[in-house]
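User: Quick sanity check before I run a bigger batch. Here is a single chain. Can you write out its predicted 3D structure?
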Amino acid sequence: MSVSSTRPRSRRRSRPRSRWTAVARTPVGACAGLLLLAVVLLAVLAPVLWGDRASVVDTAAIQQGPSSAHPLGTDNLGRDILYRVLVATRLSLLLAVAATLLGVVVGLVLGTVPSVLPRRAGRWVTSVVNIAVAFPGLLLALFFAVIFGVGATGAVLAIGLAMAPAFARLTQTLSASVVGRDFVAAARTVGVGRIRLLVRHIVPHISEPLAVNATIGAGSSLLAFAGLSFLGLGVQAPEYDWGRLLGEGLGRISLTPAPALAPCVAVVVTGLAFNLFGEAAAAALGVRTLSHRTVGPRPVPRPAPDAAAAHRPDSDRQPVLAVEHLRVAFPGPTGWTTPVRGVSFTVHPGEAVGVVGESGSGKSVTAMAVSRLIEPPAQVAAARLEFGGTPLLDTEQHVLRPLLGTSLAMVFQDPMSSFHPGMTIGRQLAEVAEQHQHLSRRGAFARAVDRLRAVRVPAPERRARQYPYEFSGGMRQRAMIGMGLMGDPRLIIADEPTTALDVTVQRQVLRLLTEVRSERGTAVLLISHDITVVAQNCDRVLVMYAGRIVEDLPAADLFTAARHPYTRALLAAVPDLDTDRTRPLAVIPGRPPEPDQVPQGCAFAPRCPYVDEHCRREDPEPVTHTIGHRIACRHPVADDETARVEKSTTKSTTGGTA
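Assistant: Done. Predicted structure follows.
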């Protein structure tokens, strides 16, 4: 049992509250919080205590200066200005908060609706928001005030809509930073719809930054309201707020400044309290906004079918996953980058296929593409991309969602970011059954507990009610596999599932994948940097380099029949018990090319000991070496050349890549 499992539930529930408590413990946050609390109490109590006195007309004391009876003087009807300023707190605060809430709600809708609407309509909404953000907020408020007319209602609408574009931009930015997280990808993999994805997974994750910015926005809204009322566009008689009182007292400022200064000080102090508390919260919670840039899409041409596919082994069997000439392109500041260039492979029922290669070789991008987790402006094209006989590129999303949600499981590299941090493990697993099996909330939770038990999670009933941070890394990976088993998966894509785990837990996770495969006939696509792990747990090995598969061979023949110089170099770089510790470790000299800087010809040419001019001019196509063994190389290594390759790749670690 992990240490985290002994934490009381009360501590888990108070975690978000404790973060806001930390804000109040800072000097600035404490002062601003106390000041805001005083303003709120004044807004509640002032109309009850002094509402009658503020409306008493005294014709014998018209426009008097400050005195013991009237500390701030009286207005043109003899009403006490101090009482009126105090009573005006409620209306001023309510209108500012109402406008802020309207701005946040409208901004939240405008910021998230592009993710739900069709692509073209979503781009129109984004363009309108970008144009509106370019205008000053007060100018927009005046524009809307003229449209909606004078009065408190028109001012609320004007200021709220003027604030909405800024919150929409903020929502878009925050959503973009969350959409790339693994737990969102996991939710999309299990088939969660876009609206539910926004409401359950994205919006709760960005609520804290929105709340902080709304607090700061309330101060600006208060100032904007005072300005509109001062100009006569806001609150109308007989109602009054601080801005209206400021306008009435400004005409007498040369004789007695108190009637104008009192509402002015109230606006400044309250607005400053909102802003200081928001800034303190932003500093304590680590809230920040990010800039992003959108690039127009460029279609990737659909390649011609791979003619060599007909000569592959097992071509008469229906594969679970069939990929032919897959290409993935991403837009960038200097043009399009293609990290996956013509990848072709198949995965059959019950088969385990391993994908190895250095970082940047395109392994994870390939997995994301076949899972339909890459969205515009990125482009995915293939001559054939089928899962269970269903074409993934030509089928509507509403048809694919139930198929991928029940038949495809993803196990991501980072077990901590694979789950939503604000939802219990059991609730996240149960969501799959609610979406695709139409089970009740209770029934779905019971199935989640059963799946946790199936993946050897101890005390599954208690664990299902715990949050991801209370699980160890190995437990989270087990729970992630359990999420995939909520349906009836035909394929599990495991993207570096053991990277952050110790050796013992790695072995347990890999054994669990093997058991699931043998018991249920599930195919496995295992992505790893460790070529030894792949060789021990897979039937076939795909070696990727610079976005291409350079060698495809049976795992049993990996150490004896590998022919590509890159594969041989990877094998030579793996130390074992017989490695001579007096010699430097074997490394591959140089570094793999960046995805946007792939050289002409063979990408491995700058690091290959057998390179010639022909290799530098033309990229070799995969050819069949033996049955089940394909190589993309003009100079495959023969058996008697193995020692030569290992010797050529054994260099000092300086300037090399292990």
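The longest strand covers residues 335-347.

User: Great, the batch can go ahead then.
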